[in-house]
Write a structure and sequence with these properties.
DNA-binding; Arc Repressor Mutant, subunit A; 70% helix; 218 residues
Chain lengths: 218, 218
Amino acid sequence: MVVGLVNDSEKCRYSINMATRGSYAKGIAKRAEILDIALEVFGKEGYRGTSLRKVAHLCNLSLAGVMHYFDSKEDLLVQILRKRDLRDEVTGDDVKQQDKFLEILGRNGEEPGLVALYVTMAAAAVDPEHPAAAYFKERYEHILEIAEESYFQTRPTPSDEELSYFRIMTRSSLAMADGLQLQWLVDPSVDVAGTMAVFLEQIRTFMAMSAEQRNADQ
Amino acid sequence: MVVGLVNDSEKCRYSINMATRGSYAKGIAKRAEILDIALEVFGKEGYRGTSLRKVAHLCNLSLAGVMHYFDSKEDLLVQILRKRDLRDEVTGDDVKQQDKFLEILGRNGEEPGLVALYVTMAAAAVDPEHPAAAYFKERYEHILEIAEESYFQTRPTPSDEELSYFRIMTRSSLAMADGLQLQWLVDPSVDVAGTMAVFLEQIRTFMAMSAEQRNADQ
DNA sequence: GTCTATACTCAGATAGAC
DNA sequence: GTCTATCTGAGTATAGAC
């Protein structure tokens, strides 16, 4: 109708309070059911082709029924990712973590929709107000922390240089995994786990090598 | 109005013909202007907060006026990325390419919206029908090709193993660059170019090393 | 070829009844 | 806790003026 109004998009786009719903047993169960179904349908059809109304219908709920449990669509999407992380928790020592890591990467190959959702949410997280921003911040911090703990288990007293190098390599590994999956989305022939394994092997060689070099220098 | 219809989302979502518009000088100029303005506003505010109507208004055009030049919003978004690639074309030999590469990564640090757009389109490209799918396919192929050409300039007769290793490392480099930028979107303190430089240095060392090893084995 | 006006459909959000 | 009804704004499609 009116054409002039252009600059009113600065509204409160994302709610602040979060998930105080589901306090009763039934609500908790329904909430979990919605997440499960949403995870499946978004994973299969991608989040762009899927409306909340569709998800609601699959849950035998109305749109408002779904919205009762989540602050917004974006919030729901992020909760899906959180649920996946809970499923894919990485634990154990150095070597076991790497194996688990590669195993997860392999499994991701069966869920392109989820990977696409992950990537999309990462892009959305540029906006610090977006619920994905907090999620990714926590996620990266958590992973870096877990990795460092396992590192200290096998090398209790690393030099500053060694520790710094390890941190850079952890970040690099994460980055490469994300990037390879991004390429894989476009071209499914890209071997995510395989390429990743080459890199991890290279890191091991390099860390051993620099240790030798240090010994040789003495 | 009607509630029942849920499964009619399988319509023709993306047009097929492309950009036969702009045949006249004026049209060509306007098309370029739209892209420039869209690049700026999407780059600054991100594509999620920006509607085509807003872009149109900034171009002193109606929404339909913009749509005259592009098949869809998604098409426009991809054209923005194509335009950026034209600006950032990588040329020259081995070393110069790496410098240029790092330089571009540095410049991307000033355009988070564009990086976010890139990542979002990558996610959208899971759908082979989406205009971004063709874009990324071409982009990756082109970059891999350029890199390989420069590799042959300095090493005209590599062994199969060397060439294969080089290809994997090129892909890995691309992946890491994408992944680091993804992390940087979430946490701007991540040093994309710096971390990337460490990896590139590591590759150089590794390639030199394996050459020595081969010589030692003989 | 360039562009406007208008109408259409669908999305997510919200208010209030039950 | 869930629904119906309604709102706003998005992208899209078409007819036709210049």
